[in-house]
UniProtKB/TrEMBL annotation:
Position of sequence motif 'HIGH' region: 112-122
GO cellular component: cytoplasm
Main subcellular localisation: cytoplasm
Protein source organism: Candidatus Aramenus sulfurataquae
CDD domains assigned: ArgRS_core
EC number from the UniProt entry: 6.1.1.19
Keywords: Aminoacyl-tRNA synthetase, ATP-binding, Cytoplasm, Ligase, Nucleotide-binding, Protein biosynthesis
InterPro entries cross-referenced by the UniProt entry: Arg-tRNA-ligase, Arg-tRNA-synth_N_sf, ArgRS_core, DALR_anticod-bd, Rossmann-like_a/b/a_fold, tRNAsynth_Ia_anticodon-bd
Name the UniProt record assigns to this protein: Arginine--tRNA ligase
Alphabetical list of PANTHER family matching this protein: ARGININE--TRNA LIGASE, CYTOPLASMIC, ARGINYL-TRNA SYNTHETASE
Coiled-coil spans in chain: none
Length: 620
């Protein structure tokens, strides 16, 4: 039962009658007072009426009193009624309210290029995507999680080119496959870049020469570091690439053969791409992240989906010649009203969507259109959510605009870009092409090392070490609003005593173990109402608020709303429990009242943590 919602309805009914304003308008503007002591709920009058010369009085089942404070009408709730209704209906899934009309939702996330290990940037994408999947499912929606395998681009072709020079080796035993491929990719790419810049130096002007020499020196230093990791591979690659008459032509040939579905090339590329995916899933499995479907970009080419979209775009009235190739003019064929409907900022000039290269091969943007159709059709989706970094904002807008121009306005409106800021690492720039990155696995192992040391120091339980690591990493990501950058600080995120995933798990274990020792028969009619004051009353109100907070986190796709709430809730519970005993209280009614509150704390933390992908631990 959502007691807070019912209390707000009661408050809205009384106020709407008093000021002659629609009840729904009043309800939607009710908020929480900014300061303690002003009440439990608040309505800023200017949000619903210009008539500030009014006062409201009365009471109801939940509303104990109204009070006018400046421009606000504040309400104090009847804590006994709140207590009775919350704990009379406290079920196993308390707070995880289901929507009235579930939707079919596709969430595509992570979708890293299968050429090197996942790095810390992918970590944020994967955790945000997986958390959305969990929250939306807990809210009652039917959710399909998908990973888009970019196996047809230039980067994969460079990897395959390097592997060809090594005579298509197998990964050595005991070596993680994506790490092995990442090394070969970085070596191949660096050698290609050194070769290219060496060629350019032959015709460089005096002003260009110094800059190019400096760039080559930097690449040579990177190459030396890569060679130290595997001299045999590096020397074979260097010898083969430097002797190649035209490496670029060979790479383009790999792309062309794969795109047209040459059987030999298909077998080779898919084999190594799947090795990379094995490595990805080994990493993601540590955080309990999985996918319902893997979609390969190449399949869209081979089954004709991309060709169909190309034909549709070529028939479009918005088709224009752009820099020697075909494109869709998005700016002059979509008006401001449609832009607003498609969440395209006012005044932003959309660049044309280029459909193909000058050689006639299609670009990833066109393939994204075909893939969007597939996501909607395969799952019969009402909504498709793409979890992609903020740098892809314009391509995502182009995608929505293209869908609209092609005659699919509902797809365009229901394609959502879940944008997120990047993860910064102090003192280090990442570059996959140069083999310079902090991998997902390195982050995980470093966090694990620090967590283990802290748990040992406190003589804690190491049986669930991996779950503590998972909570530390997940909380660090989802506690920050997606549109803000994250700075990864290992010591901060592994703090067992405040504002971290392990801290929430510790608080849950504390509540769980109190309840494990309860021998009293719990009956809401056998409580002491005078106990519901101070911190205990605040705990009660927060328990009552949980269904609303969970629903908002899921509906607004804002997991940080839930993490902030759970952290504040844990702080409040720990502050109270450090001062007052529960099971040792001799007065039966007081003891039962306190036990009920702990029971509410346990339910809120258990369901809140589970919906974020964090395991509630019974021992720490």
């Amino acid at each position: 039962m959502n007691v807070i919602r019912e209390a707000k309805r009661e408050m809205a009914r009384v106020i709407s009658q008093a000021i002659n304003v629609e009840e729904e308008k009043v309800f939607n503007n009710i908020e929480y007072p900014s300061k303690e002591g002003l009440g439990d709920l608040s309505l800023p009058l200017p949000s619903v009426t210009r008539n500030l010369n009014i006062d409201v009085s009365g009471r109801g089942k939940y509303v104990k009193s109204f009070r006018r404070d400046g421009i606000f009408i504040n309400v104090e709730l009847d804590e006994v009624s709140v207590f009775n209704d919350v704990f009379s209906s406290l079920s196993e899934d308390y707070g995880l309210e289901k929507v009235d009309k579930p939707k079919r939702i596709v969430v595509e996330h992570t979708s890293a290029n299968p050429i090197h290990p996942l790095h810390i940037g992918h970590l944020r994408n994967a955790i945000l995507g997986d958390t959305l999947v969990r929250l939306l499912r807990a809210r009652g929606h039917l959710v399909n999680s998908r990973f888009y395998v970019n196996d047809s681009g230039r980067q994969v072709a460079i990897l395959i080119y390097g592997l060809s020079k090594l005579n298509y080796p197998e990964p050595p035993a005991g070596v993680k496959k994506d790490e092995w491929l990442g090394l070969i990719y970085a070596m191949t790419n660096v050698i290609l870049e050194i070769r290219q810049i060496t060629q350019e130096l032959k015709n460089a002007s005096e002003s260009e020469y110094k800059e190019k020499i400096s760039k080559r020196d930097e690449l040579v230093a990177v190459a030396q570091g890569l060679r130290e990791r595997n001299e045999e591979y590096f020397d074979v690659l260097s010898d083969g690439i430097m002797k190649e008459e035209d490496p670029e032509k060979v790479i383009l040939d790999i792309i062309e053969r794969y795109e047209r579905g040459d059987e030999r090339t298909k077998q080779i590329v898919r084999k190594y791409v799947n090795y990379a995916l094995e490595g990805f899933m080994e990493s993601l499995g540590k955080l309990g992240i999985s996918f319902d479907v893997f979609d390969y970009e190449s399949d869209l080419l081979w089954n004709g989906d991309v060709r169909k979209v190309l034909e549709e775009t070529m028939d479009s009235r918005a088709r224009v010649n752009y820099k020697g190739t075909w494109a869709l003019d998005l700016e002059n064929f979509i008006d401001e009203a449609v832009k607003e409907e498609l969440r395209i900022p006012k005044g932003l000039e959309l660049p044309p969507l280029v459909l193909m290269r000058s050689d006639g091969t299609t670009l990833y943007t066109l393939r994204d259109v075909a893939y969007t159709f597939k996501k909607f059709s395969d799952f019969k989706a009402d909504v498709v959510i793409n979890v992609i970094a903020e740098q892809q904002a314009v391509p995502q807008m182009q995608l929505r605009a293209t869908l609209y121009l092609l005659g699919y306005p509902e797809h365009a409106k229901n394609l959502l870009h879940y944008s997120y800021g990047m993860v910064s690492l102090q003192g280090m720039r990442m570059s996959g092409r140069l083999g310079r990155y902090i991998s997902f696995d390195e982050v995980y192992e470093k966090v694990k090392e620090v967590v283990e040391a802290k748990v040992r120091e406190k003589k804690g339980n190491l049986e669930e070490l991996d779950e503590i690591v998972n909570s530390a990493i997940r909380y660090a990501i989802v506690s920050v609003s997606a549109n803000k950058p994250v700075t990864f600080n290992v010591n901060k995120i592994t703090n067992l005593e405040e504002n971290s995933g392990p801290y929430l798990q510790y608080t849950y274990a504390r509540a769980y173990n109190i309840l494990a020792k309860v021998t009293d028969h719990l009956d809401v009619s056998n409580i002491d109402p005078l106990e519901l004051v101070g911190e205990k009353r605040k705990i009660l109100i927060m328990i009552a608020r949980f269904p609303e907070v969970f629903a908002k986190a899921a509906d607004d796709m804002s997991p940080e709303v839930l993490t902030v709430f759970l952290r504040q809730f844990s702080d409040l519970f720990n502050a109270w429990y450090d001062k007052e005993r529960v099971l040792q209280e001799k007065d039966e009614k007081k003891r039962i009242t306190r036990i009920f509150l702990v029971k509410g704390v346990e339910a809120v933390l258990r369901n809140g943590l589970k919906s974020l992908g964090i395991k509630p631990l019974t021992k720490m």
